[in-house]
């Protein structure tokens, strides 16, 4: 199989440039049709030398047409198609591995960096493929087994590049799993019994983890089952390839609290044929084992301490106990350590604490603070270590300011303590991939308004070089310009929101504004929904909120309205023409918000719950998540229904439907397994009973996200209704006038 080379010739580049210049003078609005075809790249994997880059490219259209009714069926692979490019970062050449979208996953380069392995869905089952970068040829590896590759299989190259670790399904798995799903969805009789260890849907979910870790020869497809059927996590080979290192996760029961219901145990399996060796006693305490490069030791963190277990030792030792001193003279809280990475030679650990980054000598026991962070946690920039250089002398880390758009990549010299800025500007950077010698950095970048492209810095290039041009069709499309807005909420907390300017914006003119709400916003970048709002000639706004556990319903009133006031005070927003919407948790927020204020001309709840009490058991396919979300998770109530029933009432918008005066549009998907349409239905009937203006649109072939998670026609219908709803009620503001004498019937 040979693939199409993507050639950006001088002529083509010139034409694109011409189109961009023409577009600057003759731009057109961004439309839902445009949104369906915007290409968004993700860097799947990069070779250690930084030369070859595998990039998955997906559009909104590639994620439509899911059969949401089959959610929870272990045998169903939902469509999420992807195009795949291979980039040569040295020559800037680009090739389509698959230009037409396919169902593909787990792309990974071989250790020597010349072959790319991946799974490709064919005739309902995943097949193993290997692509040769030099010849641009891909071949299917004939896996010598009657069992199919698990749809959630790992893919891990052996260090010698001769084998691949993957997971096969056991005999009869498909028939058993499909039957279990049909029994729960079609009956004819469905029984749920609390005397069973697992919820009925949990038993079906567990079937999805059934697999057999298997080693497959890359050349001939020969197979060797390494373990009996088991569920393993974090599998990796030792550096010499003699052992497989992994964590086994065994579900024991359905649990409603964290750190219960699953036992974790760390193992080393010598591939010469010995039995697995347990390195940690099985426990319900989750273990995230961080292995050194050689694979002869691992570290894990627990309650602020870091433990190290060498394979030749009898047990793990606490390597941070001696360093758990107070943070400072003013803060008696003990230092709490977490693991960032092992050094390349496997002797040192890079740890983080409230003070900054530390290097711990695991053999000598000494610790050095190599980078001290600012004491004000809320004001300090966001820094994330991306790589420890192979020579052990430097740390590469991403950087983002907290109060303005300044983002990029920096390098810390561990010997001198000096920090060098490699890239720093208002652009938005993601997917940092740094070569083993640090000579090449591959990343995604957006100017903050347009979709991401893939870039390379170094690798023989004097300046950062763009490797892709994925959306030339947008050259004449007016995408929204963004601005970061800061404001104080009602409690005096400094928050930030992202403002999207309307198409054709002219200073001095007042425009409607639509807020899209959820939780916290800071970074900009291409955004489908707010670009569609801005294309209508309206401001788009994503305000942030700050929560207080136990009182989540107040957050949006305090934060969203304060953000709006800040923007309105600037003088170019029509305060009478405000809209608000959100999806999922944002839809829930929208419905709560309009029970507390009537300043919006129109509101839209997209797949958001309205009754948190009935919601607790409303989504059986996702097990106990709704309970944990309310008690200790996103809903932030901080108590069970029976401990604090009044708080569940206070955060259920349907209980205060009589206070809603804002016209409400509700969009749901019949196949929504996350927030069933029946929950939002409660609000429709409540508002209708109360004589309020409400419209409920239920997309029968859609899921979570309503029309955006349905078919292509649903997608267009969804956005058409959003535009019409806001447009109708913004127009109604203009039609209102002060009553005359005749109007009052005098």
Give a verbal description of the structure:
Helices cover 17% and strands 34% of the residues. The protein starts with a strand and ends in an 11-residue tail after the last helix.
Largest sheet: 8 strands, mixed
Distance between the termini: 85 Å
Kindly estimate the percentage of residues that lie in beta strands according to DSSP. Answer: 25-35%
Structure summary, number of beta strands: 43
Determine the fraction of residues in helical runs and give it as a percent range.
Answer: 10-25%
Strand arrangement in the largest pleated sheet: 36-37-39-38-40-41-42-43
List keywords for this structure.
alpha+beta, globular, disordered N terminus
Give the helices and strands, then pairings:
Elements: E1 5-6, H1 10-25, E2 28-29, H2 32-37, E3 40-46, E4 52-58, E5 82-88, E6 94-102, E7 104-109, E8 115-122, E9 125-132, E10 137-141, E11 156-157, E12 163-168, H3 173-186, H4 200-207, E13 212-217, E14 223-225, E15 232-237, E16 243-251, E17 262-270, E18 277-278, E19 290-291, E20 297-302, E21 305-310, E22 317-318, E23 338-342, E24 348-352, E25 356-361, E26 367-372, E27 382-388, E28 394-400, E29 407-413, E30 419-425, E31 428-434, E32 440-446, E33 453-458, E34 461-466, E35 477-478, E36 482-488, E37 494-500, E38 511-516, H5 528-535, E39 539-543, H6 555-568, E40 573-583, H7 585-593, E41 602-606, H8 612-615, H9 625-631, H10 645-650, E42 664-669, H11 677-689, E43 694-699, H12 712-735
Parallel strand pairs: 2-35, 38-39, 38-40, 40-41, 41-42, 42-43
Antiparallel strand pairs: 1-6, 3-4, 4-5, 5-6, 7-8, 8-9, 9-10, 11-12, 12-13, 13-14, 15-16, 16-17, 17-18, 19-20, 20-21, 21-22, 23-24, 24-25, 25-26, 27-28, 28-29, 29-30, 31-32, 32-33, 33-34, 36-37, 37-39
